[in-house]
Amino acid sequence: MLDAGALGEYLKAFVAIFVLIDPIGAIPVYLSVTPSYTPAEHHRTVRRIAIATALILLGALAIGSPALALLGISLPAFRVAGGLLLLLMALGMMQASPAGARQFHEEASEAAEKPDIAVIPMATPILAGPGAIGAMIVYGHIRSTAVNYLVLAAIVVVVAGFSWLALRMAAPIGGRLHKTGINLLSRIMGLLLAAIAVEMAANGLRDLFPALGVVPR
Length: 217
Prior knowledge:
Elements: H1 4-21, H2 27-33, H3 39-71, H4 75-94, H5 98-102, H6 105-112, H7 118-127, H8 130-139, H9 146-168, H10 170-208
């Protein structure tokens, strides 16, 4: 049974992963690299994008802790670095340029020429980029239990499902929201992500320097 504290952490993890993947913000990129796709190609590509995104994040969840231990990186240090990375991404989202924070212009040009864009660049780095991967590693330490990993895995599957739905409906969503609507949503999600990023970095700094957690009398 999950207590209130754990439920709060998992809700925060869900919001962070959803905002980092940002399936709505990825719609303009997806439409730009699939202008000539038939409906069958569109459906097949969207399915592969969602599956690849889920597998990448589940892989980060599974091997994140062993990788940090192998490299001798402490979790607090990784939290600080991850928080700074998420903050940079949040600033990009609030400036309505989320794709630019994940993909260089040269990569975007190369993507337009690829016959298959499902895994690269759509699944990674557009959706499951460094920020989402880093967040999965950090949230993998919420609890050292099998239940923790199962809940986080469920979060990944749900968010990947949202990504599948958003990209499946990319044309009508893009047509209704237009660029202005998508930018507005990105700015709102960027603000949420900034708050999560600051808290993540602050928790890491507090663990690295315990004196920071002491409130002077």
